[in-house]
Amino acid sequence: MFIDTAAIVIQAGNGGDGAVSFHREKYVVAGGPDGGDGGRGADVFFLADDHLSTLADFRYKCKYAADNGVNGSSRKKTGKSAEALYIKVPRGTLIREKESGRVLADVSCDEPVLCARGGRGGWGNARYATPTRQAPRFAKPGQQGERFEVTLELKLLADVGLVGFPNVGKSTLISRVSEAKPKIANYHFTTLIPNLGVVRLDSERSFVMADIPGLIEGAAGGAGLGHEFLRHVERCRLIVHIVDVSGIEGRDPVEDFKIINRELRAFNPELAELPQIVAANKSDLATPEALEAFGAYINEKDYPLFTISAATNTGLAPLLDKISQILAQLPPIKRYEPEQISVSEKIASSSAQEFTISIEDGVYVVEGSWLRGALGFVDLEDYEGLQYLQRVLKTSGILTRLEEMGVKEGDTVSILDIEFDYVP
């Protein structure tokens, strides 16, 4: 079964908690804090697997959770970090966040693609020892891993896409010029799934061709099968439009050509702008008048036109040579860039949450679930990131609350793993 869309949940691992521990040894008085840090939670990666051709496996398993980091322990032992989780998908799979629709990753290369980061491990109490606080009795919990509801969308990686009405000869053409073996029969919708074939012209020239199941009028709006597979044309660099010029089914070739182009434009306007070659197929059954009329229309539209008969191998060599020439001048297959959320958006989306401030051993400790997420996203060595964080602390009321609690200049303020001296 060919499945090219799926919805799953990915959960990166949580960081391990820091330990609260004190050194105990014979003849050693007041050995001091020795609680270790927690280990890092596992990241979630997607990996392209050329042995997979559909997303059918994701119909039966919809949640993928990575392992959590191990908690820290005594003697300053850091907990073990969890090993990353790799999810294998067909090459060309697009990962989108379900709610916002933003692109998280395009799994088209050999390298694993990171989609969900594991949480950092919490600090043990050994980290908080200072000359004035020699026995801290607190540690920090590990950060939560990122969790996303995502949709997987397979977009085939092909240089050339064959489009056209059902039964115009697309499957016959790809079977003649490549090793692909699609089902071929003299009735509509013989092809129910996209077929890929590698066309090799010589030792230095080859390209991938995709046979897209037949479109009909209204396909972009859901009619027929074509609307389910139009997404596979979006990556193609070149469209080869197959038109039946024989007239044996009582259709007008010119009108067929117009209808298919309208459907491409309705689905995605960029598809109508792709370079296009027109192949007038079944020419051995067409009348000279029909060929002349169709050729005059296509020449007027300034599309390259090739008169072929896939069934008899007529005219295929010039067509393939032209395809190769055009591809040599076009950019590589389209790759989708991840759509990152800016630091300000991430913090602002969390800034309306509540918080608590407590005083532990003279330290003002600020807690809040949204702060955990905000600090996880901010690069603390980046000046702009710190400016955004300072703005959120001010607009959320944390600084005002500290002043109400009597904080003075030089007092220590702790926000998760960060400590700083308060400066009014």
How does this structure look, described?
- With about 425 residues, the protein is of the alpha/beta class.
- It has three domains: about 1-155, GTP1/OBG domain (Spo0b-associated Gtp-binding Protein, Chain: A, Distorted Sandwich), CATH 2.70.210; about 160-325, P-loop containing nucleotide triphosphate hydrolases (Rossmann fold), CATH 3.40.50; about 345-424, GMP Synthetase, Chain A, domain 3 (2-Layer Sandwich), CATH 3.30.300.
- It contains ten helices and 18 strands.
- The protein has helices spanning about 170-175, 225-230, 255-265, 270, 290-300, 315-325, 345-350, 370-375, 385-395, 400-405, and strands spanning about 5-10, 45-50, 65, 85-90, 95, 105, 115, 145-155, 160-165, 195-200, 205-210, 240-245, 275-280, 305, 355-360, 365, 410-415, 420.
- The strands form four sheets. Strands 10-11-9-12-13-14 form a six-stranded mixed β-sheet, sandwiched between helices. A five-stranded mixed β-sheet has the order 3-1-8-5-6, with no helix packed on it. The protein has a four-stranded mixed β-sheet with strand order 15-16-17-18.
Give a quick precis of the structure.
Helices cover 22% and strands 22% of the residues.
- Unreliable segments (pLDDT under 50, ≥5 consecutive)? 187-191
CATH hierarchy: architecture of the largest domain: 3-Layer(aba) Sandwich
- Specify the number of helices: 10
CATH uppermost class of the largest domain: Alpha Beta
**DSSP helix fraction:** 10-25%
